[in-house]
Amino acid sequence: MAGTVRTESLRSSHTGNGYPVHIYVPPGDAAARAAMPVVYLLDGDSRFNTLVDIVETSRTRVIIAAIGNEARRNEDYVPSNTCTMGGGGQVAYLNFIRLELTPYIEANVGGHPLRRVLLGHSHGGSFVLYALFAEGGANRHFAAYLSSDASIACMQDTVYGWEAAYAAAHTTLPTRLHLAHAANVANIDFAAQLRGRRYSGLTLAAHAYGGGHVGMIPVAFADALAFALA
Asked: pTM for this one?
């Protein structure tokens, strides 16, 4: 496909910080781009090239908006937890993505509002779960949530609390959720919890991958993307 790549910089009024955004656009005119899915990728500095390779190899026509400034991931992605210092910025960071980054991408690059995808690994995977339960009802910001080896064990009570609060208010979860994990009991148990809820409208896939926490990424990302666009 030989799509084009560029990097732009956005400063968020919600987090007070600047973020490079690495953008991949497949071939096509403005009308074609307006109908495409957009994958909003966390840890964009280190994971962008991997996802571009997957998209090019599979000839998948998606736009990628990969968010950088990974130095802030322990603050932006997760609440206070037992694995890393800091935390607590996830609310502001989601507001940045929803209220600033998404409108910018759709106005200046392309992407269909009903075909947004959120993808994150490790703490990024936990942020995906936060975003999943932060919104209720049918008017969800993303059409698919792709959580890769989420760091649930670092904040298990908090993550289960997000889901429990959502379940207390809603019986429907109309979206697609892909839970990829290595040999991670916390992710396996969380998938079982979701299945037990029997949320109406939820399409859930949970899969184990070899290669360890980092080695699993290329295959898990490829599978998750195919699932999101199915």
From this structure: 0.97
Give the pLDDT of residue 1.
66
State yes or no: pLDDT of 2 exceeds 90: no
Q: Is 135 exposed, middle or buried (0-12, 13-18, 19+ CB in 10 A)?
A: middle
pLDDT tens digits, residue range 46-85?
999 999 999 999 999 999 999 999 999 999 999 999 999 9
CA distance 36 to 39: 10
Q: What is the pLDDT of residues 178-190, one digit of tens each?
A: 999 998 789 999 9
Q: Given strand 116-121, what is the order of strands in its sheet?
A: 4-11, 18-25, 63-67, 38-41, 116-121, 144-148, 172-181, 200-208
**φ and ψ of 97, to 5 deg:** -65, -45
Q: What is the CATH number of the domain that holds 166?
A: 3.40.50.1820
How many Å apart are CA 9 and CA 44, to the nearest integer? 13
The count of structural domains within the chain is 1
Q: Whole domain around residue 34: which residue ranges?
A: 4-229
Pairs from 164-167 (Cβ < 8 Å, separation ≥ 24): 165/133, 166/133, 166/136, 167/197, 167/199
Structure tokens at 123: 């703490």
List the structure tokens of 181. 């994990």
C-alpha to C-alpha distance for 72 and 53, rounded to whole angstroms: 25
* Burial status of residue 192 (CB atoms within 10 A of its CB: 0-12, 13-18, 19 or more): exposed
**Residue tagged 């080695």 (tokens):** 215
